[in-house]
Design a protein that fits this description.
The protein is mostly beta strands. Helix content is 13%, strand content 32%. The protein is globular. 28% of the residues are buried.
């Protein structure tokens, strides 16, 4: 009788151990997070389409309608220019107009041939494709629907007359926004980053539009865009 009891007891212990192990394994499997699918499995999301690049120029917090132009003088008499334009209403067509020749401008009185190269345009933060990046006369750029915030960057050359003797850095230059004719009443601020000695605004009733004294001389703010032609007297960087 003793031997059958021992055999039965061993059998019950073995069964209990097997059942306990199975329950433990089942609980362990259920507590683990689902494994991530392997790369390349079907049903993966397609890549988002690439957006056109945005012109990589200084950001602006400008929100009110107007034009803010910043011109950086270069040793050869050209300027690297950034224009930030905010319109009161959306437009699909942006007219462009070069500065006037210096032939009849005070402080210059010599013919010039303004020219824009490397033009880049962004509307509402997205680059606008251009058929031509060189401007030698009046023209326009087509904009996407709903464009109200526009940025232009470009190199302006041919708008400067150097003083004599030839080694001098003194020069006269005519600058106006390329976008001035889009809305003639837009308030326009112009900033010349260095070397400014005097400013004349020949289209204003009061043509002297310099504010302050060198080296902190600035241009009078909020000039109406249609009259924002300025003649600069400046020292070019060496």
């Amino acid at each position: 009788m003793e031997e059958p009891r021992r055999i039965r007891a061993r059998y019950l212990v073995t069964v209990a151990l097997v059942l306990g192990y199975s329950a433990t394994a089942a609980c362990s499997d259920g507590s683990q997070a689902p494994a991530a699918p392997s790369p390349g499995v079907s049903g993966s999301l397609p890549s988002a389409p690439a957006s056109p690049p945005v012109a990589s120029q200084p950001a602006t917090n400008q929100t009110k309608p107007g034009i803010k132009l910043t011109a950086v003088p270069l040793p050869d008499g050209s300027f690297d220019v950034t224009e930030n334009l905010v319109l009161p209403e959306a437009t699909g067509r942006l007219p462009l107009q070069l500065p006037a020749s210096g032939k009849n401008l005070p402080g210059m009185m010599a013919p010039t041939t303004p020219r824009v190269t490397n033009l880049k345009v962004a509307a509402n933060g997205r680059s606008v494709p251009l058929g031509n990046t060189t401007i030698t006369g009046a023209g326009f750029v087509r904009l996407p629907p709903g464009a109200t915030k526009i940025q232009l960057t470009y190199r302006l050359s041919g708008s400067t007359v150097r003083a004599t003797p030839s080694g001098s850095t003194r020069a006269g230059a005519a600058i106006s926004p390329l976008t001035a004719s889009v809305e003639s009443t837009l308030p326009t601020d112009l900033t010349i980053t260095s070397g400014l000695l005097n400013v004349v605004c020949p289209l204003l009733d009061e043509p002297r539009c310099a504010v302050g004294d060198p080296p902190r001389l600035t241009v009078r703010p909020a000039i109406p865009a249609g009259k924002a032609l300025v003649v600069l007297q400046l020292n070019l960087p060496r």
